[in-house]
Amino acid sequence: MKAAFAELIRNLHAKGWSPATSTNYSFIDEHQQCWVSRSGVHKGVFSEQDFMTIDNTGIGTGMFHGTKPSDETQIHLWIYNNFPEAKVILHSHGKYPVLISQFNEDFFPVQGYELQKGFKGCKSHLDSIEIPIIDNQQDMTVLCQALDVKKLAIQHHCFIIAGHGTYAWGADLFEAQRHLETLDYLCECEFLL
Amino acid sequence: MKAAFAELIRNLHAKGWSPATSTNYSFIDEHQQCWVSRSGVHKGVFSEQDFMTIDNTGIGTGMFHGTKPSDETQIHLWIYNNFPEAKVILHSHGKYPVLISQFNEDFFPVQGYELQKGFKGCKSHLDSIEIPIIDNQQDMTVLCQALDVKKLAIQHHCFIIAGHGTYAWGADLFEAQRHLETLDYLCECEFLL
Amino acid sequence: MKAAFAELIRNLHAKGWSPATSTNYSFIDEHQQCWVSRSGVHKGVFSEQDFMTIDNTGIGTGMFHGTKPSDETQIHLWIYNNFPEAKVILHSHGKYPVLISQFNEDFFPVQGYELQKGFKGCKSHLDSIEIPIIDNQQDMTVLCQALDVKKLAIQHHCFIIAGHGTYAWGADLFEAQRHLETLDYLCECEFLL
Amino acid sequence: MKAAFAELIRNLHAKGWSPATSTNYSFIDEHQQCWVSRSGVHKGVFSEQDFMTIDNTGIGTGMFHGTKPSDETQIHLWIYNNFPEAKVILHSHGKYPVLISQFNEDFFPVQGYELQKGFKGCKSHLDSIEIPIIDNQQDMTVLCQALDVKKLAIQHHCFIIAGHGTYAWGADLFEAQRHLETLDYLCECEFLL
């Protein structure tokens, strides 16, 4: 799992979705242990050794005891707590969702694309979909409160943080990647239009 | 053949033409057996084992007996039935044809490009070419009826499904790829203009 | 030389500069023998075996006796005859020069870019440069006559054929590549503006 | 260090940030020796042998005695003299900063992006950042005088030269790359808007 995830992270970097040392990633293993990507590692050289274990408050455990992961780990924990089906979370800085958030305030509306069926549960290009957009915050507690308010609107396993990037998740690596790629593609098409 | 086709599928994915688990592919082998790409496989890791045999109603046969491929297999069968020269079919979600379909309703008109000679039978950049655009449908029977209506207008070995993607085919892998790349390039140029 | 050239051709294809089976390439070896890329080979798999020898009328010689290369070989011969410093010629279908030719009729004007110094002989970003644009023709004799008329205006080792692509050349592979990349970059910047 | 730096240079080339033979790179090793990339090497094949030692006037030393590196070496020396924390300098011709410099004269203003935190010292997306833009010059003495004038405004470890490209630096390879990628991403987002 860690090897496959590290390879995916390197591939997402190759697409330009994690410039600088931005973005972070996590998963829950078969023992319900949460692993997150370590802070400050360049995603182009991310390896399976770059995941660390955390407890349910977001503090490093075991051989990572005392190590602090990225502040945004709080967002990962919020997602796992509120969407129990989530076992893998991907955070991307792909530029199209960031650009879309400059034109839309509360949510990104999509309709008419076959690819929206990439979101689990969406069955037709005719469905009207809304992807919530959350205001960016440096204070993760405030950001998670904003997520609490919009929780019911998060129906497609992903959301956008304005001027920042996207979070997408799934029951496994494959589904999380599918949701992320679906959201990015739809943002790119709508932005180019 | 299967190895070369699987490599092409991975290359098309690397171009961003099959985001999420979208797109599907098929070919007819030298024994007139039809093979289609299995459903739900991520195209970035597609291998020659990911093709399955089907009968002429689109149901899995042999060791794939009972397995159901993608619903869009019906479109592949429609193409093989109506264009006997087709032996390889490529379906792509490249974004430029999708974007073009937002500006054109019935067909995509092209003229003045040297590259349009990439379509078999087209001899000059001065030819006026029209690539049919079909409305998207979730019901494949309805979609194939729409194809029946436009059949005579399909003169360049490809068509666009609005908001969805393209189908392109040829007598071999090489020709099908040429038709697909030609259509995508022309859509990109016209969209950027 | 042939191995290095074949690798460059595959790299140019990876950039999307030779969609379908478009584009062609040539060089003159140390015995003054002219070699051209064989017709119809997909550039993504071009190998050193895919070059053929031709005589000075553009007909295959030696083991390629009687084989006819692409019609555009006449353009290569025109360049070698008129620009004796040319030993390597690259023809690209990169989309930005094609798009630029929709906005400019006779020439593409450039000024103010540091990168224009990539053209041999250009010493400053303040120089005003003009890259000739030639009307596209299917009849190579007519196209070469148009080149004759514009010959004096071809001062930067390259020209654009409208709706078609670019030709760029140099005293070696390295210089020809530099001229091609310079032209494409300048076309992209000006088009995006 | 040289091997890792050469690999980074090839990766930056693969992104299209060093077309033709443009761009140059340098670092200061643990003995305070300055190394610069040799002039005229294509960045797609840059190797660790392509760095040369220079003295503090920019002239080759040791086995490179008498070899002259690129004129722009003067800009590297200016940066090392004025920003002592700089140990690695990257110069890029990525097109977005070049395009941004056509719309902004004195500086490129940024605000509202999470990724601006990629600049060391920037703590919030709410910070208002200004990246200085310097007029391009062929005379490096004149260019460095313009840099002297703007020195206090250079607060984010990078600047843009109009119509030319960017310089970014850091205490190590990793930080310099982070600053370069951050600047390019912000320029791309703002240009696309």
Structure notes:
The structure is a homotetramer of 193-residue chains. Chain A has 193 residues and is of the alpha+beta class. Chain A has 5 helices and 8 strands, in the order αβββαβαββαββα. Chain A has an 8-stranded mixed β-sheet, sandwiched between helices. The longest helix of chain A has 20 residues, at 173-192. Chain A is globular, with a radius of gyration of 16 Å. The model of chain A has no long low-confidence stretch (mean pLDDT 94).
Short description:
4 copies of one chain form a homotetramer. Chain A has 193 residues and is α+β, with helices and mostly antiparallel strands.
User: Termini distance of chain A?
Assistant: 38 Å
Mean pLDDT of chain A: 94
Kindly estimate the percentage of residues of chain A that lie in beta strands according to DSSP.
15-25%
This entry's quaternary arrangement is homotetramer
Order of helices and strands of chain A: HEEEHEHEEHEEH
Mind describing the biggest β-sheet of chain A? 8 strands, mixed
Helix and strand content put the structural class of chain A at: alpha+beta
Give the helices and strands, then pairings.
The structure is a homotetramer of 193-residue chains.
Chain A: H1 2-14, E1 25-28, E2 34-37, E3 51-54, H2 73-82, E4 88-92, H3 95-100, E5 107-110, E6 129-134, H4 140-150, E7 158-161, E8 165-170, H5 173-192
Parallel strand pairs in A: 6-7
Antiparallel strand pairs in A: 1-2, 1-4, 2-3, 4-8, 5-6, 7-8
